[in-house]
Design brief:
Elements lengths: L6 H10 L15 E5 L7 E7 L2 E12 L10 E7 L15 H17 L8 E3 L3 E13 L4 H15 L1 E6 L4 E11 L8 E8 L2 E4 L3 H5 L3 E8 L2 E8 L6 H26 L1
Parallel strand pairs: 4-6
Antiparallel strand pairs: 1-2, 2-3, 3-6, 5-6, 7-8, 9-10, 9-11, 11-12
Helix pairs in contact: 2-3
Length: 265
């Protein structure tokens, strides 16, 4: 009588041989597609697909009071909704840990890279500034929502236009735009998540691979420097493994940055 080897063990064995079921290398992404301006109501929006994984990201702008500790800087708020249509694992109701983490890691990558010049979003110091809302929606979860959300956020910010603001009435005139985009840096930050599965490291895991991940490290880099890092799951890493993760991130982010910039021009 023969026994069928569990898929999880087969995946780990393949990875040790430098193989994946979809024929990719360990550090190769699936095909990336970015569709621009998918929402008529958002100031900037994109649909990002990485293989079968899909997210929609929209940007909204509003005028509000600045935070007390930054009276001359605009605000940033990032939120993520894991929609039940994207996976039977997600349910309606208050945000779960996965949604909160997705929003916070995306926020940190944007904020710590200095991608947005928040001082230029100040209208009147201590009173009025532009608030940038980044809304992330999962449409299909086939693994690596984290990187898809980060790509979508950067691409949507690149496309966003500032709506007109009537200082007399204090109202934003949505649907009418100034002749300027958001104050962004010329180069874009890139977030890459590296997963440890058994004794192997991979990027852009499928859902089946992500389920086997013992540790995920998401690194956001800007101009070759690390601006933020988030480790998830309980598996410990050695110093050598951390160095390897840095090397993987450095090489992969260069390729992904070129691909993203080409698709949003």
């Amino acid at each position: 009588m023969t026994t069928t080897e569990p898929t999880s063990e087969r995946i780990k064995k393949y990875l040790l041989e430098g193989k994946r079921f979809d024929k990719r290398g360990l550090f190769d992404f699936r095909e990336i597609k970015i569709e621009k301006n998918v929402s008529k109501k958002a100031e900037g929006s994109v649909r990002v697909k990485i293989g079968k994984t899909e997210v929609i990201v929209g940007i909204k702008l509003d005028v509000a009071a600045p935070y007390p500790d930054s009276p001359d800087k605009g605000n940033l708020m990032v939120s993520a909704d894991m929609l039940p249509l994207s996976s039977p694992r997600f349910e309606l109701g208050p945000p779960k840990f996965e949604s909160i983490e997705l929003g916070r890691v995306t926020d940190r990558g944007i904020r710590e890279s200095g991608f947005i010049d928040f001082e230029k979003l100040c209208i009147k110091k201590g009173e009025k500034v532009w608030t940038v809302f980044v809304d992330i929606y999962s449409i299909n979860d086939d693994g690596n929502l984290m990187d898809a959300a980060a790509m979508g956020a950067i691409a949507a910010l690149r496309l966003a236009r500032i709506p007109k603001y009537d200082e007399e009435t204090g109202k934003v005139i949505y649907g009418e735009y100034e002749n300027e985009s958001l104050p962004l840096k010329e180069d874009s930050p890139v977030s890459i998540s590296i997963h440890k599965i058994g004794n192997s490291f991979v990027v852009d895991p499928t859902r089946e691979e992500e389920d086997l991940s013992e540790c995920r490290v998401t690194l956001t880099t800007y101009e070759g420097a690390i601006s933020s890092m988030q480790k998830s799951e309980s598996e410990a890493l050695t110093i050598d493994e951390i160095k390897k993760i840095f090397d993987i991130s450095e090489e992969t982010s260069k390729k992904i940055l070129k691909e993203i910039e080409k698709k949003i021009k």
